[in-house]
Amino acid sequence: MEEVVIVGAGIAGLAMAVALKKVGVRALVLERAEGLRATGAALGLSPNAWQALAVLGFSNKLTSIYKPLSKGYVTDMKTKAIQEVRYDASKGSGDELRAVHRKVLLEVLADELPPNTIRFSSKLTSIETQVEQGSSICILALEDGTVIKSKVVIGCDGVHSRIACWLGLSSPVDSGRAAIRGLAVYPEGHGLNHEFQQFVDVSQKAGFMPLNSKDVYWFFLYKAPPKGADTGGDPNLLLREVAGHLAKDYPPLYLDIVGHSDLSTVTWAPLMFRYPWDVILGNLTRANITVAGDAMHPMTPDLGQGACLALEDAVVLGRHIRSSMSKRGEIETRRIGSALESYTRERRWRTAALITASFFSGWVQQDGSNWWMRFLRHVFYKFVMVRAVSATRYDCGKLC
User: Lower CB count within 10 Å: N or C terminus of the chain?
Assistant: First the structure.
C-alpha cells in the first residue's frame, strides 16, 4: 500500500513528488522509461515558475546558474520591423524569465527526492478503484505483473496521458503546427547578448535564447501536416530541413546557431492542445485520482507556460493533499476526494485561460500577412502581449 502514486517522472511528476515530500508524504513515482526523460533541449521559466520553485525550496540552485533574460526582440520577416519586449518582473528579485536546460531541471528535482522514490521501467497497463473497509483504493497493474495499491493516484504522464483517458477527458487535438527544437553548443563561447530573439513570418515563427556563455536554445515553429515529419525525426534531416528550406531566408546569425546544434538535442514534435472547455467542464478528478501538468492542460508553446503551470500544479495539489492529512501525518481517504476537487477547482479557469491565450498568441503571430493581420500583430505585441506576460506573474501560494 502506497500513500500516493505518481505516474510519470517528467517535470510535473518530479515536482509533485518534491511538494508532497515537503508536506510529509512519501510518493512512489512510476516511469515507463529506463531513466530520466532528458529529451528536449531547454525551456523558459517565467516568474510564476520561480515562485513555485522557491516554495519547493531549491530555486537558488538554478538562479545561481542561469541569468535572467530582461528583454527580447521580435522581428517581422516581411517588413523587417523590430519590436522590443521586456520581461522584467521586478528588478533584482531573481524571478525574471530565465532559460534553463531541461535535463538540469529534471536532475535538480530528482536530487531532492529520497532514494528509490522513482521506479523506472514501470509501464502502467491498467487502473481501477475498489472499496476496502469503506474507503476507495486505487489498484494499478504494471506490465511486469506488479500490482500496487494506493490511496491517491496523480497522472503526470504527459500529453497522451492514460490517466486522463481513464478520467474520461477528451484527447488533445493537433494544432496543425509543429516544432523543431535544438541546443547549439559553442565550446569557445557564443558572444551573444543575453536576450531573447524571435522572428515572425507567415505561418512560421523562430527564435533563440542563450542559456549560458556556451549554449543557445533555438526553435522553429511552422504549419505542418498532422501525420508527422517526412524526416522521421532524423536530426540531420531536420537540420537540413530548417537551414536549407524552412529558414533559408532567415538572418545568418539564426542559421549559424542552427548549424552549431548538438544532434542529440534536435527534436520534432506536433503542437497539441486540449480544448479549454474540456478543462473547464471535463472530469479532472474522480474518486481519489487526478491529473497535473500536460496530462491536464496540454497547450501550444507560444507563451512558454507548459512547464511553468506544471510547477504551479505541484504546489497547489501538495497544499490540498496536506489539508486531507490526519494529525499522525497520514492521508485520510475519506477526505482526499474533497481535497482533489478543491485542487481542480483552483486550477480549471487559470489553465483554460492560458491554453486560450497561448493558442491565440500563436495564431496572431503566424497566420496571414495581409494588412489587417499585420496591424493585429502590431497591436498584439504592443498591448495584448503585456497582459499575457502579466499572467505569468502569478503566485500559486505556499504549501502549508
Answer: N
Q: What is the mean pLDDT of the chain?
A: 88
Instruction: Compare 293 and 376 and report the one with higher pLDDT.
Output: 293
Whole-model pTM: value is 0.92
Pick the CATH number of 2-66+98-172+274-364 from 3.50.50.60, 3.40.50.2300, 3.30.1490.110, 3.30.70.120: 3.50.50.60
Cα separation, 61 vs 283, in Å, equals 36
Q: How far is CA 386 from the centre of its chain?
A: 21
Q: Which CATH architecture has domain 174-272?
A: 2-Layer Sandwich (3.30)
Judged by average pLDDT, the poorest of 66-75, 180-189, 272-281, 346-355 is 66-75
- Residues 275-309 pLDDT 10s: 999 999 999 999 899 999 999 999 999 888 999 99
Of the candidates 122, 147, 156, 124, the residue with the CA atom closest to the CA atom of residue 33: 122
Contact 307, 294 (CB under 8 A): no
Strands 27-30 and 2-7: parallel
Q: How many CB atoms lie under 10 A from the CB of residue 390?
A: 11
Residue holding cell 515530500? Answer: 21
Describe the crossing of helices 47-56 and 306-322 by its angle, rounded to 10 degrees.
Answer: 40
| DSSP type of residue 301 | G
With a pLDDT cut of 70, the percent of the chain lying above it is 88
Buried b vs exposed e over 290-301: b needs ≥16 C-beta within 10 Å?
A: bbbbbbbbbbbb
Rounded Cα distance, 170 and 177, in Å: 20
